[in-house]
Specification:
globular, 103 residues, mainly alpha, two-stranded parallel ribbon
Length: 103
């Protein structure tokens, strides 16, 4: 992820990494996710890098409102596993991405 951020011409500022180690992505009340949502709401995030949609939330029913919330705040979301959200077809494909993970 650091390499992609640098390639895109950005720098990850200290304290702006949001990892919920030890918390399940099946729930929305997670400390790092809450900090991220607060940072987005206060305008401190312009671009968000996420490995895959299921890293944001396990269920599409949780992913979609978060993605909408971030987009409404003007945040560009970059999913590293594949681009999503550029077209209506991407948005309809997104639910399938949260169901499969590579371990």
């Amino acid at each position: 992820m650091q390499g992609r951020i640098a390639t895109d011409g950005f720098v990850l500022e200290p304290g702006h990494s949001y990892l919920d180690d030890g918390y399940s992505g099946s729930v929305l009340l997670r400390p790092a996710l809450e900090r991220l949502r607060d940072a987005v709401a206060s305008g401190h995030v312009e671009r968000l890098y996420v490995n895959a949609p299921d890293r944001l939330a396990r269920r599409y029913a949780h992913q979609a409102p978060l993605i909408d919330e971030f987009r409404r705040a003007g945040v560009e979301i970059v999913f590293l596993n594949r681009p999503i959200g550029g077209t209506a077809e991407d948005d309809t494909f997104a639910p399938g991405l949260g169901r499969h993970r590579r371990i």
